[in-house]
Amino acid sequence: MTIATNQESRKNPSRATEEALHKMRSFHPDVVREVVHAIEQSPVVVVGMAQNPHVRKVRTALEQAGIPFQYLEYGSYFSNWKQRLAIKLWSGWPTFPQVFVRGVLLGGEDLTVTAIADGSLKRRLERT
């Protein structure tokens, strides 16, 4: 399995040298592999951290909407920041939570809550 990095760097390789891309790919690859495996196996995955109110709110919103999800937690404000940084480098998304639907990054709390409200999250889940 190839672990891809930052979406923009993949689209425009001139924005990062091969050496930089290699360092990005080799930064906590075990954590990135765990996230990749989860999004390949589960229709909805929430990647988050303890003590973050946005993570808590998105999980609550998904539960209230009756949408099952897998939750991966990487530390808190006081721990595991390097593991979370590896996930950010890989996904290109700067904050937590990171919500993936059918292997595609949906976004954080605001975009997920909007997608629940307008029905687009459920439509994404219904696609095969």
Could you name the ranges where pLDDT drops below 50 across 5 or more consecutive residues?
none
Strand fraction equals: 5-15%
Strand order of the largest sheet: 2-1-3-4
CATH architecture: 3-Layer(aba) Sandwich
- Domains counted in the coordinates: how many? 1
Structural class: alpha+beta
Would you spell out the secondary-structure blueprint of this structure?
Layout lengths: L6 H5 L6 H8 L3 H13 L2 E5 L4 H12 L5 E4 L7 H11 L6 E4 L2 E4 L1 H9 L2 H7 L2
Parallel strand pairs: 1-2
Antiparallel strand pairs: 1-3, 3-4
Helix pairs in contact: 3-5, 4-6
Structure notes:
It is built from seven helices and four strands; from the N terminus they run H-H-H-E-H-E-H-E-E-H-H. Strand 1 (44-48), helix 4 and strand 2 form a beta-alpha-beta unit. It has 128 residues and is of the alpha+beta class. The chain has a four-stranded mixed beta sheet, with helices on both faces. Helix 3 crosses helix 5 and helix 4 packs parallel to helix 6.
